[in-house]
Amino acid sequence: MRILLKNKVKHLTVVCLLIVIFVFNSISAKCDEAKPTGDYAGSEKCKECHSEQYDGWQNTLHSRVVQDAKKNPESVLGDLSDERAKEFIDKYEIEFTVGSHWSQRYLVKIKDEYYALPIVWSIVTKSWDDFSVLFWNKMPYSKYCIGCHTTNYDPKTKTYSEHHIGCEACHGPGGKHVESEGDATLIVNPAKLPDTLREMICAACHVRGKDNSGKYKFPIGYQPGKNLADYLVVAKAEDETNEEAILYQFEEWKKTRKSPKKCSICCIKKPDSIASLHDTNASAEASCISCHNYKDQTLVKHTHHSLDVEISCSDCHKTKEEDATVERNIHSYDYYLVHRVGCYYPYIEKYCMECHKDKAIDWATSLVIDWAVPEDVVHDE
Questions:
Q1: 4 vs 9, 11, 98, CA distance in Å?
Q2: Which of 9, 56, 126, 155 matches a 20 to 30 Å C-alpha distance to 101?
Q3: Which residues have C-beta within 8 Å of that of residue 195, sequence separation ≥ 6?
Q4: Residues 6 or more apart in contact with residue 306 via CB below 8 angstroms
């Protein structure tokens, strides 16, 4: 009888272990795939009715903050043949890239968790730099980063709707909105929120803190329209509330961006006039177009070039090179935008010569003088 009972217990134990392994592996596998879940519809669904906004969003950095390196090998911008990179590349396989404008990091899988390699590729200087060298393999992506690199992340199941900042990251779950065939009351419109709640949408990932449990470096359970202070705990002064500290830090963060008051960079209208604005300089040009929405003849008047000429904003509006030795917060506005204060260069004719190499500088100077003096836009409001 005892032998029979022991056999049954052993059999039951084996079955339970198999179930646990199956569930664990299922959860791990889910983290590799993005699928609309629960009340979330997914950005592709939003596209069906909001195609213009969707096209604009695709040209933002939010849409490609994370890219699948296996499905899209071209997303890897770093020089993997460099000896500094080989040390890790020979040992690990790059699963995802993080970043596509100033710098790029690389996620690798160790057992059932993702980690960012301790080397960062500077897209500006085309060189490698160190990052968290001593502790990188003790900082799992699921606890330090993923909440702000995905839409609708659930830490319990390690699942998400999209592995990038999709439409619903700023507008909240849109499933009911879709089911109702467009009921505007069933989706968050940030523009119609009180200023505090609207800014909290951005602050959720652009103000550093932890969730209420202290386990995650991002707010768990927060959705647009809610009070972020209920989900994110930040460092604060003795006489400050958590909400006051969040808003103060967000205001300080915004000061780094010498640009318009609102985050118009998130939903950019795609200009139909010139293809080059959305090629190699897409990120930079999209920032300009979010406020300076030139189209067709207004673009011709502004650039003094016909529409069939491939020209981009940064061909004429130059800025100083980024100093790769200066540590800067990757989550700040000014880390991404092309210019700081003003983007009009008074000696702009010098840049004419980069294309018109057969002309003399006097020709360019005379040409520019004949134009109306461009407006020197100061982005400090």
A1: 9, 11, 56
A2: 155
A3: none
A4: 300
Q: Are 208 and 171 in contact (CB under 8 A)?
A: no
Rounded Cα distance between 120 and 85, Å, is 9
Element (H, E) at 214: none
Q: What is the mean pLDDT of the chain?
A: 78
d(CA 302, CA 312): 12
Between CA 167 and CA 26, with CA 170 as vertex, the angle to 5 degrees is 65
Cα separation, 252 vs 173, whole angstroms: 29
- How many Å apart are CA 332 and CA 252, to the nearest integer? 10
215 within 8 A of 143, measured Cβ to Cβ: yes
pLDDT digits (tens, 9 = 90+) for 103-122: 899 999 999 999 999 999 98
Strands 66-68 and 94-98 turn out to be antiparallel
pTM across the whole model: 0.68
Q: What is the DSSP letter of 342?
A: B
Distance from C-alpha of 104 to C-alpha of 297, rounded to nearest angstrom? 37
